[in-house]
Every structure is written in structure tokens, then in C-alpha cells.
Amino acid sequence: MFWKALVKETYCPFLSLRLLMKFMFCFTILVQKVNFEVKKLIQQGRMAKKMTQADLAKAINEKATVVNDYESGRAVPSQQILAKMERILGVKLRGKKK
Predict the structure, then answer these.
(1) 48 lies in which domain range?
(2) Which is nearest to 37 in space by CA: 98, 78, 96?
(3) How many distinct structural domains can be found in the chain?
(4) Could you give phi then psi for residue 88, rounded to 5 degrees?
(5) H-type helices in 1-78, by residue range?
(6) How many angstroms separate the first and last alpha carbons of the chain?
(7) Which pTM was predicted?
(8) Residue (of 38, 46, 55, 48) closest to 92 by Cα position
(9) CA spacing 20 to 30 A to 43: which of 30, 74, 83, 94?
(10) % helix / strand / coil in the chain, to the nearest 5?
(11) pLDDT tens for residues 77-94?
(12) 97 found inside a domain
């Protein structure tokens, strides 16, 4: 009897963890990251203005890691942050090019 209770308690958390890991894997595949063109435009715009990542981060009132994540393509794009970057860098980052 004790063994059955122990197996049940240890199996359920494992099953829950397994389902959670499966969900997280599927979720990370569906989340869209900053694409190659946008991260290159951010980097080129920043370098044209002779700014460091820290300078750009200070100008848009964000942490330097946020700018680094956008330039490396790890960030999930935020319209607000992209708008601030567009305003400071003078580069169009959102919408279709004409």
C-alpha cells in the first residue's frame, strides 16, 4: 500500500513536468523573434549615429540587455520598443517597405 502511494506521488509530478516541458517546447517554436532584416537595421542605424548599445538603451529608456537582445535576434518584438528605436535612429523597423 505504501509503495502504491509513493509511486503515485512521484509519477504525477513527473507527468506534469513532462506536459509542461512539451507545452514550453511548442510555445517557443510559435513565438516569433526579431528577424534578420530588423536586427541589421537596428545595428546599422545605431552605428550610423555613432551610438553604443548602452547609449541607445539610455535614449529609449530601456536596459542595455534589451538592445543586445534585439540586435542578436533573441528578443520577442515589442511595438513600443521598436517605435522608440525608430524615433531615435531615424530608421523604419515596422511595417512594409515602400
Answers:
(1) 36-89
(2) 96
(3) 2
(4) -75, -45
(5) 2-30, 36-48, 53-59, 64-72
(6) 72
(7) 0.68
(8) 38
(9) 30
(10) 70, 0, 30
(11) 899 999 999 999 999 998
(12) no
